[in-house]
């Protein structure tokens, strides 16, 4: 916005006034309601405040249709008293404001004392390589991250990871940090979202701690910046990050950046930053396929020490979007339901619990499909499956088929009976109960049933 403001001022002021008083003002940054400018001296500041402040404010509000405060910082940090006093504001108000600021400053100082033990890595200890499931969709980013963690600042610097929401970017960058930290507990590592980077920078500008801010970042061995797309259009933040980037890069320190888009596709990202990102390795994460989703569910349920049957995992994986955070949410919901009711997780339970979340596929499974699948599996004839013959090799498949029909279709007991050669509904209930009971004890049977169900879904 400052560039635009300057352009406007150039039009209304004489050229001499503009070059003398406006051009030397350096844009340091802006918050929602304040623009921060650097002035060469306090004399300069006083002059500009007296003569041009109201004009600057007018121009700012003209281009943004908002009211901005303007703060001046004297280059080479001069004493506090050179704070701008917006002359036109009533005295009392500006005093209050100053007091407020002092209060904030004290708070800041206190906070600083609290966390004096230098750099907080800010890493999430749960996000490690061990807890990350790799599959075709994320293989490249996963391998690149591991390479960086094993040999920081050698081949892939910067590493730029991009991919859609909930696909594991934050997880991977934390894993890099955690692994490096595990090997070298004294490594100076920091994970920052780009929003946090920006907020800290603006605060540092406000409280004249830019040197501290810069030094902190430039001392790092590994800087992880998450979601760089939030810096889009934030010129001052990008500028600062650019310098941080260069300083780290030149001293051979690793930088890892994530984004939801490829660098070229981030609107409002300055060309020079974009080209820096292209110096290193750009790795993408694609939406996971069903197999990867199943593997993630299996891993997470193992970590929670919960038994998640294959058919349920498949049901969730197929019903979920590609956002893994949502997939996790489903699992947690199901696990909570199972734990609260004290029951084992089953497909029927999953359907019940997820009925509002997973809109079931139109590919409804029919009684006939199940009959065919079961008959094929046991290599018996369909007519035998539906018959009344009481040979064991037929009875067991028949009961299994009936059980699966009950579980996977909406058919009632009499309807199922009808399709199994006109059996009455008590026979059907008996079969279902029998299998239910045996499933708890017989692992082979369970595997068989799950296998058949899985094939029905694919
Ligand atoms: P992003 O930052 O890309 O939006 P996150 O890294 O926050 O996504 O991932 C969302 C959730 O999904 C996290 O809880 C993360 O642990 C999990 N997750 C994502 N990908 C995987 C994976 N491949 N293996 C295990 N968990 C994953
Ligand atoms: Mg993220």
From TrEMBL:
Annotated region (Domain IV, binds dsDNA), positions in chain: 339-458
Annotated signal peptide: none
Subcellular location: Cytoplasm
Binding site for ATP: 166, 168-170
Alphabetical list of PROSITE patterns matching this protein: DNAA
Bias kind Basic and acidic residues: ranges: 75-118
Pfam families recorded: Bac_DnaA (PF00308), Bac_DnaA_C (PF08299), DnaA_N (PF11638)
Residue ranges of every copy of the Chromosomal replication initiator DnaA C-terminal domain listed in the record: 366-435
Domain characteristics, as noted in the entry: Domain I is involved in oligomerization and binding regulators, domain II is flexibile and of varying length in different bacteria, domain III forms the AAA+ region, while domain IV binds dsDNA.
Role this protein plays: Plays an essential role in the initiation and regulation of chromosomal replication. ATP-DnaA binds to the origin of replication (oriC) to initiate formation of the DNA replication initiation complex once per cell cycle. Binds the DnaA box (a 9 base pair repeat at the origin) and separates the double-stranded (ds)DNA. Forms a right-handed helical filament on oriC DNA; dsDNA binds to the exterior of the filament while single-stranded (ss)DNA is stabiized in the filament's interior.
Family, per entry: Belongs to the DnaA family.
The protein's name in its UniProt record: Chromosomal replication initiator protein DnaA
Organism taxonomic ancestry: Bacteria, Pseudomonadati, Thermodesulfobacteriota, Desulfuromonadia, Geobacterales
């Amino acid at each position: 916005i400052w560039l635009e403001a300057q352009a406007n001022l150039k039009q209304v002021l004489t050229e001499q006034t503009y070059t003398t008083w406006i051009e030397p003002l350096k844009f340091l940054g802006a918050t929602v309601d304040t623009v921060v400018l650097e002035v060469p001296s306090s004399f300069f500041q006083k002059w500009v405040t007296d003569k041009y402040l109201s004009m600057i404010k007018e121009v700012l509000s003209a281009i943004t249709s908002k009211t901005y405060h303007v703060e001046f910082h004297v280059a080479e940090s001069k004493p506090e008293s050179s704070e701008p006093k917006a002359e036109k504001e009533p005295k009392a108000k500006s005093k209050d404001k100053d007091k407020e600021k002092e209060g904030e400053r004290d708070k800041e100082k206190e906070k600083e004392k609290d966390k004096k033990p230098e750099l907080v890595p800010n890493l999430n200890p749960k996000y490690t390589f061990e807890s990350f499931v790799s599959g075709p969709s994320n293989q490249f980013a996963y391998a690149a991250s591991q390479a960086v963690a094993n040999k920081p600042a050698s081949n892939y610097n910067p590493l730029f990871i991009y991919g859609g929401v909930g696909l594991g970017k934050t997880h991977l960058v934390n894993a890099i940090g955690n692994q490096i930290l595990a090997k070298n507990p004294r490594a100076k590592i920091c994970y920052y979202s780009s929003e946090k980077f920006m907020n800290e920078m603006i605060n540092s500008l406000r409280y004249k701690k830019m040197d501290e801010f810069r030094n902190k970042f430039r001392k790092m061995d590994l800087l992880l910046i998450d979601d760089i797309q939030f810096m889009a259009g934030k010129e001052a933040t990008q500028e600062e990050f650019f310098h941080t980037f260069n300083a780290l890069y030149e001293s051979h320190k690793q930088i890892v950046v994530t984004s939801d888009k490829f660098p070229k596709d981030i609107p409002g990202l300055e060309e020079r930053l974009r080209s820096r990102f292209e110096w290193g390795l750009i790795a993408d994460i694609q939406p996971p396929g069903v197999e990867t989703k199943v593997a993630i569910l299996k891993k997470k349920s193992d970590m929670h020490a919960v038994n998640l049957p294959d058919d349920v995992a498949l049901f969730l994986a197929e019903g979920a979007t590609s956002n893994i955070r949502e997939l996790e949410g489903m699992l947690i919901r199901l696990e909570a339901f199972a734990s609260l009711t004290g029951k084992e997780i089953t497909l029927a339970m999953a359907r019940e619990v997820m009925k509002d979340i997973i809109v079931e596929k139109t590919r409804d499974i029919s009684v006939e499909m199940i009959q065919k699948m079961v008959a094929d599996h046991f290599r018996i004839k369909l007519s035998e499956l539906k018959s009344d013959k009481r040979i064991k090799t037929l009875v067991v498949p028949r009961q299994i088929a009936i059980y699966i029909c009950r579980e996977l279709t909406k058919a009632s007991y009499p309807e199922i009976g009808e399709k199994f050669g006109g059996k009455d509904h008590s026979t059907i209930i008996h079969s279902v109960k029998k299998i239910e009971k045996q499933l708890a004890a017989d692992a082979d049977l369970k595997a068989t049933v799950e296998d058949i169900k899985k094939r029905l879904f694919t």
